[in-house]
Specification:
The complex is a heterodimer.
Chain A lengths: L3 H14 L4 E9 L4 E8 L6 H6 L16 H10 L4 E7 L3 E9 L11 H9 L6 E8 L2 E6 H8 L7 H18 L1 H4 L8
Parallel strand pairs in A: 1-5
Antiparallel strand pairs in A: 1-2, 2-4, 3-4, 5-6
Helix pairs in contact in A: 1-3, 1-4, 4-6
Chain B lengths: L6 H17 L5 E6 L2 H6 L1 H13 L5 E6 L11 E5 L4 E4 L7 H10 L17
Parallel strand pairs in B: 1-2
Antiparallel strand pairs in B: 1-3, 3-4
The chains are: A alpha+beta, B alpha+beta.
Chain lengths: 191, 125
């Protein structure tokens, strides 16, 4: 995957396929510790400890279309080659939590990429799922909670085109606010 | 969500959406983008972005949905277009620059772009 955000999208899609109704996505970029931590936690059907221990093996999958599953193996590999790791914590009936760590300055670390589009892809999922998204960069923080938006909307669905556009703008604005030096027209920092 | 200073804005959006929903009973079309690992790796997210951009710039009311792997990984990104009351057409290996034509020709004018479809139903309605 060219961006870490695409691994996040993949993990969120797993949550949807696991029947989750809520997923919590957290990104913590800590420049002083030189770490980038990604956590995706869902309330889906979960899996046994044995499955959780083996799920980063490409030949272990629950899918029916074929016998390989590459999503988590690719995510784990991306973390490991950046001095990090990927942990899968899961209990049947309770949900799954995936935590991936990276050394932020590692030369092989892919850029985080387009998170607003990833959260949109999750929110537009065929099986409705609430997404709580938190992104920290040093001391700055952005939070978006679709459950809160839904409460505010009453009978209007999240998928309504006008709401969709509003959410896109809110996410893009929020993400831009985390890196004001780039938004102000300074030369964008390449990772 | 204190970070969302635009909550008042959301209330305006809610009112506008309510009025619009009262005026129209259903959406013009449903567009589905496959987003399994295969779709994501092939660029489905960029295709979804292009679809959202194109719809935002038009007055077409279409719902956009994302779904998982449908088993035709080699043909990703896959996009289904279903006009209200018509058969579903699946487009294969979709790239963002193909989106404006699909939206204009199929969604707006009701003529599927058959050369990009994965097959033509015997009786397209």
């Amino acid at each position: 995957m060219l961006e870490l955000s695409l691994h996040i999208l993949d993990a969120v899609r797993n949550a949807v396929d696991a029947g989750a109704t809520a997923v919590d996505v957290q990104i913590d970029e800590d420049p002083s510790a030189d770490t980038l931590t990604i956590r995706v936690a869902d309330n889906g059907r979960g899996m046994s400890q044995e499955m959780a221990a083996n799920v980063t093996n490409p030949f272990v999958t629950t899918r029916k279309t074929r016998h390989v599953g590459l999503g988590l193996p690719l995510f784990a590999e991306a973390a490991r080659r950046c001095d990090g790791d990927l942990k899968v914590d899961s209990r049947p009936g309770q949900g799954t939590c995936i935590t991936a760590t990276f050394r932020q300055s590692h030369i092989d670390r892919a850029p985080l990429g387009d998170m607003p589009a990833v959260i949109m892809a999750a929110l537009l999922s065929d099986r409705p799922i609430d997404v709580r998204y938190r992104h920290k960069v040093g001391s700055r923080e952005f939070e978006f909670d679709s459950a809160e938006v839904r409460r505010e909307l009453g009978d209007v669905p999240l998928s309504h085109p006008l709401v969709r556009e509003w959410m896109r703008k809110a996410l893009e604005e929020g993400e831009r606010g985390l890196r004001p030096e780039e938004a102000s027209g300074a030369r964008p920092k390449q990772h | 969500m204190p970070k969302l200073k635009s909550l008042e804005d959301l209330q305006r959006v809610r009112e506008a959406a309510k009025q619009e929903m009262a005026a129209r009973s259903q959406a013009d079309a449903r567009i589905i983008v496959a987003m399994g690992t295969c779709g994501i790796a092939a660029g489905a997210r960029e295709v979804m972005r292009a679809i959202l951009d194109e719809l935002a710039a038009s007055n077409i009311r279409a719902t956009v949905e994302t779904t998982g792997c449908v088993g035709m990984c080699a043909k990703e990104p896959l996009v289904d277009v279903e006009l209200t009351g018509k058969s579903r057409v699946t487009y294969a290996n979709v790239k963002p620059d193909m989106v404006p034509r699909i939206i204009d020709q199929h969604v707006r004018r009701g003529e599927p772009v058959w050369e990009w479809a994965t097959g033509r139903p015997a009786a397209f309605q």
